What we know:
The chain is 54% helix and 12% strand. The protein is of the alpha/beta class. It has a single domain (43-211), classed as HUPs (Rossmann fold, 3-Layer(aba) Sandwich), CATH 3.40.50.620. It has a 5-stranded parallel beta sheet, sandwiched between helices. Helix 5 links the parallel strand 2 (93-97) and strand 3 (123-126). Helix 3 (38-47) packs parallel to helix 7, helix 6 (132-139) crosses helix 7 and helix 7 runs parallel beside helix 9 (188-211).
Amino acid sequence: MLSRDRKTNPASPRLRRPLISILAFIGALVLVVTFTPLVRWWAIQLAGPWDDPGGETLIVLAGSGGGDGVIGYGTYLRCQYAVFAWRQGGFRKLVVSGGPPEHPQANAMKNFLVSQGVPESAIVTEGRSHSTRENAEFSKTAFTSTDGARVLMTSDFHMYRAVRVFRKSGITVLPRPIPDASKRSSSWLGRWPAFLDLCVETVKIGYYSAKGWI
Length: 214
């Protein structure tokens, strides 16, 4: 009876092998992401230099949105570090960039920054952009030849692509990443969401490279 079943299911061994390989890969991935410093290392590699440069203009890019004009965690983190940078002194203008037009993240970012003591007159908003490339293109009008050094602030995992997009658009910026994915990687609960953000960002880097945008 057993030999007859094997003859009637010749595909079973062939299906079993790839299934075992897939399960083994998933298991190995779980172990690597959960129990090794992969996520932190990856985020730091994408962040680049971490020397907190100063300048006259600080550009802060929006991240995740909470809907209805409420800033998400990534955007909040960037704004909080922008406040720290502003309080250190030196910056004269702060440009916040991010849409969508119906509920611009830039407006919510400005409200938060003002609530933390940044003068409203020092903040310039750009609320039309839907992407990093549009962040750069639509922010150009905020700059003049007298703006001096421009510092770009965004999450660690986003900096590699962002700084190259701005420079490709003709805007010279100094990178000032903030600890986002690297910070979340310090806890098990935050490690996997950070890992997924890194995966998505790496795909976007490949896409932008193929399009010639970085």
